[in-house]
Amino acid sequence: MGDESIVIETTEAFLEDTPGSIKQMKAAYANEDWDRLARIAHKIKPNLSYMGMDRARELILDLEEQSKNREFADDFRQQIKELDQLCEQAFDELSEKVEQLKN
């Protein structure tokens, strides 16, 4: 049970923190607050790695770099949208998995 409790605790922390961070990142994009967007991306990057979300991690790395350098790809907006969609899917799947582990 020890390993499962660590998985549950870590996943629940991810589910509590990351949706708000994604929302803040989208708001930073809307406000063209590139420094804030880069800071948020940097903050959640390790969590995406830990959860095995490879594509989301690729996107967040790219978004962070573009925001820091103020050099934006034509699909910058689409990258944010894809990240949001990947995270929403992961949030649903991880929530289900946590419930299964608890039972």
> What would you report as the Rg, rounded to the nearest angstrom?
15 Å
Gross morphology: elongated
**Approximate strand percentage:** under 5%
CATH topology: Four Helix Bundle (Hemerythrin (Met), subunit A)
Structural class: mainly alpha
**How confident is the prediction overall: mean pLDDT?**
93
Helix fraction bin: over 70%
CA distance, first residue to last residue:
12 Å
Please tag this protein with its features.
103 residues, mainly alpha, Four Helix Bundle (Hemerythrin (Met), subunit A), 4 helices, elongated
Task: Describe this entry's structure for a reader.
By secondary structure, the chain is an all-alpha fold. It has a single domain, classed as Four Helix Bundle (Hemerythrin (Met), subunit A). The chain has four helices and no strands. It has helices at residues 2-30, 34-50, 54-69, 76-102. Helix 1 (2-30) packs antiparallel against helix 4 (76-102). The protein starts with a helix and ends with a helix.
